[in-house]
Amino acid sequence: MANSLGRHVLAEIYGCSFDILNDREKVEAMMVNAALEAGAEVREVVFHKFSPQGVSGVVVISESHLAIHTWPELGYAAVDVFTCGDRVNPWDACNYLTDHFEAGHMTATEIKRGIVEDPKEAVNI
Predict the structure, then answer these.
(1) Which residues does 73 contact at the CB level (< 8 Å), separation at least 6?
(2) Can you give the three-state secondary structure of 5-70, one letter per residue?
(3) Per-residue pLDDT tens for 74-125?
(4) Which of 101, 104, 9 is nearest to 55 (CA)?
(5) How would you classify the pairing of strands 105-113 and 6-14?
(6) Angle formed at CA 118 by CA 116 and CA 124, multiple of 5 degrees
(7) How far is it, in rounded angstroms, from Cα 125 to Cα 123?
(8) What pLDDT does residue 1 have?
């Protein structure tokens, strides 16, 4: 992760179970478990169920965040996993969600965030 502050994976997860993507409690639990599976430390969790369908939410982790919005009627979930440091692998979270959403397939792109030309040493004040 030379000279970058973090890794941000934007995942498109297709062919998912309607019943899972439309259940706020299941989506929330799977997102929290995905964060833990990737080695992250969970700090805060906020999820919302839309009417007639769909769930959005975020899991704030010490290393950044996981976010999701679902379209159950399309079997589709848009997922962002942003991690800082070298300890947490965002791909582990994306793969966990793909498996547990009973998805047909996932496509994803990783973006390096905070590419610093002249890195400075961080100082605690």
Answers:
(1) 18, 53
(2) CEEEEEEEEECCCHHHHCCHHHHHHHHHHHHHHCCCCEEEEEEEECCCCCEEEEEEECCEEEEEEE
(3) 999 999 999 999 899 999 999 999 999 999 999 999 999 998 777 667 677 6
(4) 101
(5) antiparallel
(6) 80
(7) 6
(8) 44
Give the global pTM: 0.90
Residue whose entry in the numeric block shows the structure tokens 């919302």: 48
Buried/exposed 24-41: b ≥16 CB within 10 Å, e otherwise: bebbbebbbbbbbbbebe
Cross-strand bridge partners of residue 4: none
Cβ-contact 105, 9 below 8 angstroms: no
Which residues does the annotation mark as catalytic?
A: 64, 69, 84
pLDDT in tens, 33-56: 999 999 999 999 999 999 999 999
Paired sense of beta strands 76-84 and 105-113, if any? unpaired
Q: Which two tokens stand for residue 45?
A: 């969790």
Round to whole Å and give the CA distance between 38 and 104.
Answer: 21
